Automatic annotation (TrEMBL), chain A:
Organism: Bradyrhizobium quebecense
DNA damage found in the keyword field: no
Name the UniProt record assigns to this protein: Aromatic-ring-hydroxylating dioxygenase subunit beta
Keywords recorded for this protein, A-Z: Dioxygenase, Oxidoreductase
An MF annotation (GO) of this entry: dioxygenase activity
Coiled-coil region(s): none
Automatic annotation (TrEMBL), chain B:
GO molecular function: 2 iron, 2 sulfur cluster binding; iron ion binding; oxidoreductase activity
Keywords linked to the UniProt accession: 2Fe-2S, Iron, Iron-sulfur, Metal-binding, Oxidoreductase
Name of the protein in its database record: Rieske 2Fe-2S domain-containing protein
Species: Bradyrhizobium quebecense
Family membership: Belongs to the bacterial ring-hydroxylating dioxygenase alpha subunit family.
Amino acid sequence: MISEKTITDFIYREADLLDTMQWQAWLDLFHPEGRYWMPLEWQQQDPVLQPSLMYEDLLLMKVRIERLAGERTFSQKPKSRCHHLLQAPQILVCDPAAGTFKARTSFLYTETRGDTLERFSGWASHDLVPVGDELKIRLKRIDLVNFDAPFGNIQLFM
Amino acid sequence: MAKYGKNPRAIGGLVRDAEVHRDVYVDPEVFDLEMEHLFPNSWIYVGHASQLSKAGDFITANIGRQPVVASRHTDGSIHLFYNRCPHKGVKIASEPCGNTGKFFRCPYHAWSFKTDGSLLAIPLKKGYEGTGFTDTQANDGLSRIKNVVVYRDFIFARLSESGVGFEDYFGESLSTIDNMVDRSPEGKLAVEATPIRYMHTCNWKMLVENQTDTCHPMVAHESSAGTAIKVWQREQGNSTETPMAVQLYGPFMSPYEFYEQSGIRIWPNGHGHTGVANSIHSNYSDVEGYLGQMVAAYGEKRAHEILGEVRHNTVYFPNIMVKGAVQILRNFIPIAVDRTLVESWVYRLVGAPDKLYERALMYNRFINAPTSIVGHDDLEMYERAQEGLKSNGNQWVNLRRLYESNEAPDVTAVINGTSERQMRNQFHAWAKFITMDMDQPVEAAE
């Protein structure tokens, strides 16, 4: 039975897989129709006809991940690393009967490469669905507090 | 000690026929002179009239280092001012865009100005009686920028009071803007999206040059576009439809021969474009219903003419690039000698199917965003160049690919698509416009 704790554990594990660069295990958390979305506008509703920083399906996420290890991926020489610091997830919906699970988690994210270190903060929203006994990500949405700022390269996943 | 200020001869010496000195990218004094001379002498993109749809709407921008504000007046006219209160210099508008209502009001002492810039009211006005205030510049209100041209809703301005007129400056290069606007069945574009903003720690000219550099995509973008093709070939399974994403990434990996025969067209004053015969935008899927709309609006022949023009990147000297076939304008805004803010704008084709807007937005986030893997490839190269150019081993940047010794400046020509001639064209214009308003040459420092 999926409980609030199951959701919370899932979210912590997801961040940990990113921080430890277990990319394939991280991709496996997504539903086949899953999406990763980083809006560019305040309280954005539409990922398709409004501008976004990222809106990617599994194919595009795979491209991003395979690229990280590419021999001629010069922007990953040296490689980037990342760190997530999460607040306790706020469970918005935990409805096993309907199969609907939603949470919102405040985070601090650090991405570093070479001598540079960048910090970002915002909220991660998880829209999860059960597949067999497991939860899968239908949508992971990242709302940065300063989504409209001019950033340098953001190379990994928040 | 200043090497280049008020020294047009020394500046001219930075640009050879097919080489430029590294100081144009790394010397802070050269950057200062660009802000003081090059940008004011050139016609600079400020914004799009659709951002000023109602009276009282305003947008703010910088031309070089000068903060400006554009506003829509009650009679529908567009005005451009320096963004400073004539009293103590406070910026009157601080947001990128907004609506100021019937007047601008300075937040410091509540001086107020009509949306055509004229002075509306000053609190305690009687304190100025008999002081000679009416003879001051402040009495005229916000300082107006006189040379403003709204060309098919694109707002351009030249800060210098004298210089090259708008039509002479852009000439035939305006055909790329025409083509982008004509792609709307209503002949109209609209800005509905905020721009994607991307900070580059490199000189602004590296970005401009890269727009017509056709020998880097297959090398630098093997990591992103190359991987996208590889993953798609492996994972497509039984699908027969190429997703939009693969259509956008794929052509970046086109071979040298493709770019060679695509061609580059150069125009006077540093403008030019890649993709004359065809381009990486040539083979996108048709969007259902669109051709019918275009034929209905323009007739069969003209509609095909418009849609057959698939120019790749058009550089408008000095610092914007327009991509008509996907309705994108990139503004390379210089912040410092080694710092450039890139704002990438998407225009919606008014009256066209949503799918075209979706594609334009997708292209913008795939290629122009700080989260774009293609963008990562490029920025890495610019940053390495910004570092590498500190080397004293060789102080010249080589732009000799397909150089011909009899190349005439300021001409229109179509050339091999892998030529570096457009970069030479830009640097010729660079030397011309940066020195245009300098005093007669003083003796070069020995």
